[in-house]
Specification:
Blueprint (H helix, E strand, L loop, with lengths): L17 H8 L3 H11 L5 E2 L5 E2 L2 H15 L4 H8 L5 H22 L3 H14 L2 H21 L5 H18 L10 E5 L8 H12 L3 E6 L4 H11 L3 E5 L3 H5 L2 H8 L4 E4 L5 H7 L2 E2 L4 H10 L8
Parallel strand pairs: 3-4, 3-5, 5-6, 6-7
Antiparallel strand pairs: 1-2
Helix pairs in contact: 3-4, 5-6, 5-7, 7-8, 7-9, 8-9, 9-14
The structure holds cobalamin.
Length: about 300
Amino acid sequence: MNSNTRRDANGLTPSLRIGELGRRVGVRPETLRAWERRYGLLEPARTPNGYRLYSAADEARVGSMVAWLARGRSAAEAAELARGRPPLAERTERPVLASAGERLIEAIQAFDDESAHRVLDHALARFSLATVLSEIVLPVLAEVGDRWMRGEATIGQEHFCTELLRGRLLALARAWGGGSGPLALLACPPDERHDLGLVCFGLVLRESGWRIAFLGPDTPMPTLDDAADRLDPEAIVITAVVPDRLERVRRELAAIAERHSVSIAGAGANPEMARSIGAVHLVGRPVEAARWLAGEASPLQPT
Ligand code: B12
């Protein structure tokens, strides 16, 4: 990180250019600029040569703004709600969360799984699972990926981080298919191995009483089709980092969407693609999107 860039509330680095932020949240850069200017929704850091860089906190506010707009609020109201100050408990706990994230990164950089699990143990004992996911696990994943891109972390450290967190999350997911709540069928399309966002999404849905059937990364379309018909889930959620991996199965997804409620999400999904498939575009971060789906199951209409 250069000295002129400001750290976000998690102590992690703002690193997104406006185009990338727009792609992630499915909002055009011109609209994002207008929201920044009119409502102060975004709080970018500046590089020395004047480029704006956005953080995970900016992304979360935009996700929240989009969700409030979808509920019929005016833009000004939606911005106010999205910028709402967090409750007192959350404000006072924020430094604790930030330091847990930093200690987790230190442990990962040192390949020290015992310390990493200790940080997670303490965090899970003190905070809700949703808070640990959105304030520690997801920012740490993004930060370790960014460090790798900047040459500050090795591929080994990045893989160590991924495997440690994936193992821990799937342990928390044990028996998440049990119970009697609505069922979500979760999968990544062929060739897509980035499933951690989807796992976090499933964990939060599970907390709201949903049952989860998880097919995981790289799922062949006939497999998804078959599972969808056998299970008849309330929602099918497919995520990808790269649009091409969803593009290639657009037709198969559209066929499934004729019989079931399909949502697409992740950086590879966009509203146009969702429309052409007859799917919902789930915007925002996994935790907020899961809460949205759990709380608002009825407005699941194609976008
Ligand atoms: C972990 C990781 C891996 C792991 C994945 C393990 C796993 N089981 O998931 C492994 C090591 C396997 C991997 C492999 C590769 N990776 Co990788 N990986 C990452 C890393 C570090 C973190 C990704 C992650 O899980 N983030 C956590 C998620 C939740 O955050 P996110 O992806 O930013 O998603 C945001 C939104 O899209 C949304 N979201 C995401 N998922 C979901 C789900 C739902 C339901 C909802 C609503 C929202 C949502 O929420 C997030 C915001 O909070 C990123 C770096 C980074 N900075 O993101 C690279 C990254 C995603 N990988 C990348 C690449 C290039 C690869 C490889 C091609 C590398 C290689 N040469 O082998 C392979 C491709 C594998 C494949 N075929 O899919 C690129 C993708 C660039 C691109 N757009 O094409 C990235 C961005 C790194 C980079 N900067 O170059 N990777």
